[in-house]
Amino acid sequence: MRNLKVVLFIPLLMALAACGANAPKPLPTVVLGSSTDSSTPQAAGGNEGNPSGVTASGIVVPASNARLAFSQPGTVKKVAVAAGDQVKSGQTLIELDDTALQLEIAQADRTLRELTSEASIAAAEQAVASTQKAADDAQKKLNTLNRGRADKKAIDYYESQLTLAEDALDHAKSVVESLTELSTADPKRANAETNLYNAQKAYNAALANLNWARGKPSENDFATAQANLDAANAAYQEAQWYLATLKGEAVPADATGSQLAQLQLARDNLKSAQNRLANSKILAPFSGTIVDVHVVPGEYVLPGQVLVETSDVNHLRVETTDLSERDVPAVETGQTASIFIKALNQQLTGTVIMISPVADTLGGDVVYKTTISLDDPPPDLRAGMTAEVQFNAK
Q1: Domain 5-63+315-391 class?
Q2: What's the CATH code, domain 66-97+280-311?
Q3: Can you state the angle between helices 118-147 and 219-246, rounded to 10 degrees?
Q4: Is the dihedral of CA 336, 341, 342, 345 positive or negative?
Q5: Tens digits of per-residue pLDDT, 133-151?
Q6: Cα–Cα distance for residue pair 13/23, rounded to 1 Å
């Protein structure tokens, strides 16, 4: 078995500006090889023209990449694209069967039209008028209690009714007394007894009405009258809100009422059905290339199930894969960089446009993904190609 040995290569430190500051000392490179292998390949370009001394490996990636899915379940009706197709932003890629949704929208729309028809508006106007009258009457009743149960005119009326009832009762009594010699089974006496009974009831009622009118309202009378007024005012207010809504006028956010709630529910149902119809299609989020399709027509799919993948391979960037936590402080957005594309053996230039705010780990090391836009990418550049990135001095 050949003996292996560890050879450590420690590059010389480069002097920086005249101020005497030194570049960060790179970590030693550990190479496992045979006893006769004592050289290390240098990355293309080295640190020449790179005063910051910060380098990182990278990979060419599309500017945009998306894995698309539905937000609702359903049966796939149409798959409009295949892998390799070029698509435009907003283009329909996949459609679900929307037959049931179309019926739901038609029903919700019909319900809303009925609730907002001319007849419904006329009925709402009548409701406003009737509830206003009820509120006015309830207010008058409460005002009457504040002055007493009844005014003098009402008391005079009840006294007159009592006088008439008393005369009728006396007459009925005299008739019965004149027929006492007849049997109670005699129709003539039976009729007189009935009249006397009714006359007594009428007298009792007239007397009760007069006594009530002459008396003072109780606390319960006031409470009942106030409750009736509050209910009438609330009904009047809700009728006004509902009518205003039907006419397209503004109402407070806290407006209430059963009819208003029914109208809002109808509008919400229509909007919900329309949203589900819109979500029954997957649209291209950007112009690009279809990378893969994972579904066929007739297949039942679930929410979140990835069905199509698309990438904007016409606009490429470079993302670093191993920019360490020690080097990231020397990098900032807007900083220029030199990028060596290994497969093309070509040097490119670019600008840092994003530094990830959160770290990843690579082999136990903490690294930060950094994205570099390319100034003039060559036509033969492809996503997935590897790169070496040298960040220029700030």
Answers
A1: mainly beta
A2: 2.40.50.100
A3: 160
A4: negative
A5: 999 999 998 888 777 777 7
A6: 7
